[in-house]
Design a protein that fits this description.
By secondary structure, this protein is mainly alpha-helical. The protein has helices at residues 5-18, 31-39, 58-71; strands at 77-79, 91-93, 96-97.
């Protein structure tokens, strides 16, 4: 199949995009975020935090961690989003929603 002008332009654009490194080649590393944390004075060490990420189960996991930590006698604060019924559900201190 001969190249049409549109197909040729598409292939040229594709080739140009694929040559743009490192945008197209992932090189997973913590180097950049570590450098940023150094620059900011290691703010992540200012207080203990558990940060949950992902697609599903974050609120359930946060509630379980909250219960486990409180069971060990620790005080907890939790922020989740979105809320189900009231916006005050988003923030809880020691397992109790803000009032």
């Amino acid at each position: 199949m001969p190249d049409t002008p549109d197909l040729a332009a598409f292939r040229d654009a594709e080739r140009a995009l694929l040559q743009r490194w490192p945008e197209t080649k992932l090189d997973p590393s913590l180097d950049r975020i570590a450098a940023l944390c150094d620059l900011l004075g290691q703010p992540q060490r200012a207080y203990p935090v558990i940060h949950l990420t992902g697609t599903n189960g974050k609120t359930s996991t946060a509630r379980m961690v909250d219960n486990l930590l409180r069971g060990l006698g620790l005080r907890t604060g939790r922020f989740t989003s979105p809320h189900l019924e009231s916006i005050t559900e988003r923030i809880a201190i020691d397992g109790e929603p803000l009032t």
